[in-house]
Amino acid sequence: MTETMTIAPVVKTVLVACSPDRAFEAFTRKIGSWWPLETHALHPGEVREVVWEERAGGEIYEISTEGEKAHWATVRSWSPPEGLTIAWQVDPEAEAATEVEVRFTADGSGTRVDLEHRYWERLGAVGAEARASYGGENGWEMVLGRYASVGEA
């Protein structure tokens, strides 16, 4: 009998100084303006564009300055401006995709953005290490910090 250990999700919340509509648009359509493409990409420092196909079943991918396409994720649910869920699999060698859910909720004059990155156990032996990386200071904390500053502009 094989026992699968559940690994706790990474949960992060940021407040952005804009409406849920604008926050959703900044997170998706404008991802290239805030995502740390110089370090957090499959072609670090050489990304021309990030494409987000805005529908369930759509793909999220980067296009390098040389025109190479590199898959990031598949959109599982698309409900603007309330939220979205993606199957995150930047590493094509990974055993499976993890899942990222993002919710956008009006909060006073701004928007509360809740992100949950879960199902690390799907990655097998490297799941705990991957979770630690995304949960660390150079993971979602840094990425969402950059996103929040764009939402305020």
Low-pLDDT stretches are none
Please give the number of β-strands.
Answer: 7
Structural shape: globular
Rg over CA atoms, rounded to whole Å, is: 15 Å
CATH fold-level label of the domain at 10-41 and 78-151: Alpha-D-Glucose-1,6-Bisphosphate, Chain A, domain 4
Helix content: 10-25%
In order across it, which strands form the biggest sheet?
1-7-6-5-4-3-2
Strand content: 35-45%
Order of helices and strands: EHEEEEEEHH
CATH class of the domain at 10-41 and 78-151: Alpha Beta
| Number of helical regions | 3
Describe the protein in words.
- This protein has 3 helices and 7 strands.
- With 153 residues, the chain is α+β, with helices and mostly antiparallel strands.
- It has a domain at 10-41 and 78-151: START domain (Alpha-D-Glucose-1,6-Bisphosphate, Chain A, domain 4).
- The chain has a 7-stranded antiparallel sheet, covered by helices on one side.
